[in-house]
Amino acid sequence: MSAISNGAWRTGQETCLIISFALENALYLNCSSFSDEHSGKVKAIMLEVLSPLITEADFVSNELLDILLIHIVDPLKSQKKNAYALAKDLISKTSITIEPYIQQVGKE
Three-state SS for 102? Predict the structure, then answer.
């Protein structure tokens, strides 16, 4: 692997880690710190910020998929309804980008 491609891979991996960290914190904050009234506003901001990060990333990591998908199934779906709503909308908004990665995980 050349130094340029190695650097690009590392940058892509670092970007994915940053997105995973931001998403995990967004889901945590959205479900624990805000009233339902504020939660909608926070969700809209988080969708606006996170959607382009995911769709423009070089790849989508399994860690990012785990963070998203765990919030759309029980028990978290029922326990953390605001986080569920954010994860569901984020999956919907980025589905074209994340679908191939979800399919790949299903084949492994």
Answer: helix
